[in-house]
Specification:
Number of helices: 16
Shape: globular
Radius of gyration: 21 Å
Largest sheet: 4 strands, parallel
Number of strands: 9
Structural class: alpha/beta
CATH topology of the largest domain: Rossmann fold
Number of domains: 2
Order of helices and strands: HEEEHHHHEHEHHEHEHEHHHEHHH
């Protein structure tokens, strides 16, 4: 749920058939007593099956979250995965189809295609506002499929995992993951509380091959920076979302650290005189965030950011978070991604842990 959506109406004949089917199923469910009512993060009261076996993820953040909590229920991915990403997932998850997304600019999943997957539930994870509530209400009304929204801000990740565990019929797993997520966040908060304000860096988040796209302070796409007590320098532009900026603006901001999402940018700035004038580049404090199986800082803004927050703490505050991150990475992949990492794959993941 990291971008706005463009709603596309459903074919009228299919809509009518779907509505009739939903009414029939709802009547049978009421008689059989196999449904329950839950309240989502928008305060919507939604009737869902007591047993959930098939989940359509409305966007990329939901895809990751459902995979983490109940991988066997996930019907497919909202965005395409590379072969490198698939190599860090379970074989079953790696083989899942691309289903497209309901949320986001130029949404790629039609309501007809959603119905064709026969989901028990549609789940969206991310920000909760009128735009996403309207989408959820429209899709649920037109398809008869229960549609739930769960708040996905980084600091609410423990609650999100516990809530999904309850909705998807995996409450024990949801609680286990929630407790582990809370432990990671608590460790970060405790460490950052010991760092004086004058030692907290000014950070620029570089997106794209040119590094001239960023995310604003307060955005769900950059909240990791603020969680770590650092300052996101991109807080004075009038734009919204992930705006384009100029090298002159970045020079004016004068960031101490650059967190980069694209390896092409990191390679290009080595020979760029303008970028070499930026303090972060001059002092070798440009860090390429690991990106497998999902971006550790963003792309998408979901459970994957828990690990990214601990990685970023290590590069922002090397003295305080100097312990070896490898045990945490192995544990995270095992607990959250259902994958046991061998030393070779672990090494490839962390190739970018040193500054450029």
């Amino acid at each position: 749920m990291d971008e706005r959506f463009e709603y596309r109406p459903m074919n009228g004949r299919l809509l009518a058939l779907a509505a009739i089917g939903a009414l029939l199923l709802g009547g049978l469910a009421a008689r059989d007593g196999d449904r329950r009512v839950v309240t989502d993060s928008a305060g919507r009261h939604v009737e869902i099956p007591a047993r959930v076996e098939r989940v359509f993820a409305a966007g990329a953040p939901a895809s990751v979250a459902v995979y983490v909590v109940a991988p066997e229920t996930l019907l497919g991915w909202a965005l395409p995965l590379s072969e490198s990403q698939r190599a860090y997932l379970t074989p079953q998850a790696a083989d899942l189809q691309l289903r497209g997304r309901l949320t986001g600019r130029s949404n790629t999943a039609s309501l007809e295609s959603v119905i064709a997957t026969r989901p028990d539930l549609i789940v969206d994870v991310g920000e909760v506002d009128d735009t996403y509530v309207s989408l959820a209400d429209q899709v649920q009304r037109q398809t008869g499929i229960p549609y739930l929204i769960v708040a996905g801000r980084l600091d609410r990740t423990p609650q999100m995992l516990a809530t999904l565990g309850d909705w998807l019929g995996r409450p024990e797993r949801g609680r286990e993951l929630s407790e582990r997520a809370e432990a990671i966040l608590a460790d970060l908060r405790a460490g950052i509380a010991e760092i004086s304000p004058d030692r907290r860096p000014r950070v620029y988040l570089a997106r794209g091959p040119s590094g001239l796209e960023t995310s604003l302070s307060g955005s769900i796409n950059a909240e990791l920076i603020e969680l770590l007590g650092a300052t996101n320098v991109a807080e004075t532009t009038p734009a919204t979302g992930n705006p384009q900026v100029s090298i002159e603006q970045i020079l004016h901001w004068s960031p101490d650290v650059i967190l980069a999402l694209d390896p092409r940018f990191v390679a290009a700035i080595r020979d760029d005189a303008a970028w070499r004038s930026v303090p972060a580049v001059r002092n070798g404090r440009v860090y390429l965030a690991p990106e497998l199986p999902f971006g550790w800082i963003d792309a998408p803004p979901s459970v994957n950011r828990l690990l990214g927050a601990r990685w970023a703490a290590g590069v922002l505050y090397r003295d305080r978070f100097s312990d070896d991150i490898r045990p945490l990475v192995r544990d995270f992949f095992s607990r959250f991604y259902h994958v046991e990492l061998d030393p070779e794959r672990l090494g490839r993941l962390l190739d970018s842990i040193h500054g450029h």
